[in-house]
Amino acid sequence: MNQTAMTNHLLKIQNELKQLSNKEIAEHSQRFFKTEKGQYGEGDIFLGIRVPVLRKTAKKYHGISIDECSELLKSKFHEERLLSLLMLVAIFNKANSKDRKAVYTLYLNNTGFINNWDLVDSSAEHIVGAYLRKIDKKPIYWLAKSDILWERRISIMSTFHFIKYNEFVDALRISKVLLQDKEDLIHKAVGWMLREIGKRDLGAEEDFLKKHYKQMPRTMLRYSIEKFPEPKRQRYLKGQA
């Protein structure tokens, strides 16, 4: 596809999204995703389109190219970036090894645009986790030590892909790296991944908790033990496990 055709195709997608936009939903999203000054989503702009609508739109444009997704990912509108990521996941799932690498590389080269928890959570495991599962996983350890909140969240959320294959080592190691993270959104993500490990292997989760639960941020602990029987949950919360 030449540059003119690509530009016209992107304009068609963007015009369709503008038609789907809703001012009231946009205002709610601005509050929900914490876009005020000093908040984690500061300055983000929303069109006001629900996720199911975006998923339907992504399927409609299933023939989109990686280059087009790259341009859309750089949009100032949150929903355009999310749409790009949903389409990149779809491309990755059907791609050959060369194109999978291209999607993965594009993703890690543009983490500055993957800058809210829903953008990370809808894509990291499906692209970064899926790409790295059978190869060297050093990139997620680099991300775990990043100064950027969203890169650290990409790191832990990427391990969800491994967890689904009952491979817990990297998720547990990354959890340990992030144990003293200062951000609540990291506490929630780590606790979530520990809980997912526990669904598959309760012993593996509890081995980790027994070593670290007294040092874990409260939110992280609460998320990780959410499904425990109440008496056991209370013992952890009271530091008596």
Write up this protein:
The chain has 241 residues and is mostly helical. The chain folds into two domains: 1-116, no CATH class; 123-241, Leucine-rich Repeat Variant. It has helices at residues 3-20, 23-32, 51-60, 66-73, 78-94, 97-109, 117-121, 124-132, 138-144, 149-163, 169-177, 184-200, 202-212, 218-224, 230-237.
H-E string: HHHHHHHHHHHHHHH
Mean pLDDT score, rounded? 96
Number of helices: 15
User: What is the fold named in CATH at topology level of the largest domain?
Assistant: Leucine-rich Repeat Variant
CATH class category name of the largest domain: Mainly Alpha
CATH architecture of the largest domain: Alpha Horseshoe
Descriptive key words:
Leucine-rich Repeat Variant, 241 residues, mainly alpha
Short description:
By secondary structure, the protein is mainly α. Helices cover 68% and strands 0% of the residues. Helix 4 runs antiparallel to helix 5 (78-94) and helix 10 (149-163) packs antiparallel against helix 11 (169-177).
Per-chain topology:
Elements: H1 3-20, H2 23-32, H3 51-60, H4 66-73, H5 78-94, H6 97-109, H7 117-121, H8 124-132, H9 138-144, H10 149-163, H11 169-177, H12 184-200, H13 202-212, H14 218-224, H15 230-237
Helix pairs in contact: 3-5, 4-5, 5-6, 8-10, 9-10, 10-11, 10-12, 11-12, 12-13, 12-14
